[in-house]
Design a protein that fits this description.
Layout lengths: L6 H17 L13 E5 L4 E5 L13 E5 H9 L5 H11 L10 H8 L6 E5 L2 H7 L14 H7 L4 E3 L6 H18 L5 E4 L3 E6 L2 H23 L8 H9 L1 H19 L4
Parallel strand pairs: 5-6
Antiparallel strand pairs: 1-2, 1-4, 2-3, 4-7, 6-7
Helix pairs in contact: 1-8, 2-4, 4-7, 5-8, 6-8
Length: about 270
């Protein structure tokens, strides 16, 4: 049974469930069984997050629970917070047998960033092949081709392995603050070593685009490693692509198409 039935929330549930099924498509190998998670800010201080144990491939609107973003971030920031506090927070959000995943903490951290309204967490095989190797940093050492820069930006975040839960959320929150202070904006991708990736977008469609591009980048790197190693673009070329008017237009069009699709607008 849904926790509320106001129309904006019902539509948000449909949207995040549809995104989950796209990210969990079997032919993509981005998430199998109950792997991965998705979330969406509701615009009222709450978020929808997929319940633990639910398969992305078959997620339905009623498989999403609501959590207060601010309340969750208070727990993440609390020096005295621990497993008992997390359990109490999740018990309050539980509906029937459904409970939030422990990764809901990291989803709240991501949704607390400016311009981030939807988050998709997946374990794509090409991405994890690198994240589970000594060459994980190849994903963030530089940019390989223009479309990577247009969709993913210039700088992504690579996080060392930490067991999912409160400690991981706390470390990533600190790293994100440093990233935003350095670059002026949140990353589009957070890579977690030996775990998976988080795509941070302003819409469901943008999260899908980011995930698609991150998977392509991983495949290109794996191919390049087999051919002698990746050759990254020079910093001046990266900066030029990141600011070229035609590339900025493509980025705007992609973003506009994503928002239009979310709103059901035909362009």
């Amino acid at each position: 049974m849904m926790q509320d039935d106001n129309e904006p929330t019902v539509q948000s549930r449909r949207t995040i469930a549809a995104l989950s099924r796209e990210l969990g498509r079997p032919d993509r190998d981005w998430a199998i069984l109950a792997e991965g998670n998705t979330s969406m800010a509701l615009g009222d201080g709450r978020m929808l997050v997929k319940a633990s144990g639910v398969s992305m491939e078959t997620a339905l609107p009623e498989d999403f629970l609501t959590l207060g973003i601010g309340e969750t971030l208070q727990l993440v920031d609390s020096p005295g917070g621990g497993d008992d506090e997390v359990r109490a927070l999740f018990d309050a959000a539980a509906v029937s047998h459904r409970r939030p995943s422990v990764e809901a903490l990291l989803h709240a951290v991501c949704l607390g960033l400016p311009g981030v309204d939807v988050v998709g967490h997946t374990h794509p095989i090409p991405v994890n092949a690198l994240l589970c190797s000594p060459r994980a940093s190849a994903l963030t050492d530089g940019s390989l081709f223009p479309d990577q820069i247009v969709v993913l930006g210039v700088k992504q975040l690579l996080v060392p392995y930490i067991d999912p839960g409160l400690r991981l959320a706390q470390v990533v929150r600190s790293m994100l603050r440093e990233h935003v202070a350095e670059t002026g904006a949140p990353p589009k991708v957070i890579y977690l070593r030996n775990h998976g990736m988080f795509a941070l977008g302003a819409s469901d469609r943008e999260v899908l685009q980011i995930t698609e591009m991150a998977v392509k980048v991983a495949r290109v790197i794996l191919g390049a490693l087999a051919a002698g190693g990746p050759v990254y673009l020079e910093p001046e070329h990266v900066a030029r692509i990141d600011t070229r008017p035609d590339e900025l237009l493509r980025r705007t069009v992609l973003s506009r198409d994503a928002h239009a699709e979310q709103e059901g607008v035909t362009l």
